[in-house]
Amino acid sequence: ANCHLDESVGNTDGGSWRLIGPASELSKKRCRLMHSSLGYDSDVCLFYVKGEFFAMDARCSHSGGPLCEGDIEEAEGVLQVFCPWHDYDFDLRTGKSGTSLQQQVYEVKLEDGNVYVKHPSRLSLQPLPAEQKS
Ligand code: FES
What we know:
134 residues; mainly beta; three-stranded antiparallel sheet; 1 helix; 3% helix; globular; binds FE2/S2 (inorganic) cluster; iron; Rieske_2Fe-2S_sf; 2Fe-2S; Sol_Rieske_ferrdox_dom
């Protein structure tokens, strides 16, 4: 998505660039769940839709539904994910909803064929050790 090449790894805007993996691999699925080192509530979805990556909090801000499993639709050029639990919509680019809710979104960049997401915590495609207890 948006590339801000002037931003090096650092702590601006509440996050650092996290290396997720090769775009060629990540683009094979419509959505990947990225586990956050902050725990379940902070997990992030990495969507790949129409040639573009989007990162958004994975747990719906309504009641925690799994947005990775939501349907994606485009209306008037706006890509939206619909929560599988109560069908609330969220704009993939801004996190805004037709309801009053706002889902947190994160910047994504591509560099040397790799996908990076700007996030306050470590992100991993594999469950992180701290989460395996439950
Ligand atoms: S939990 Fe997502 S719409 Fe209710």
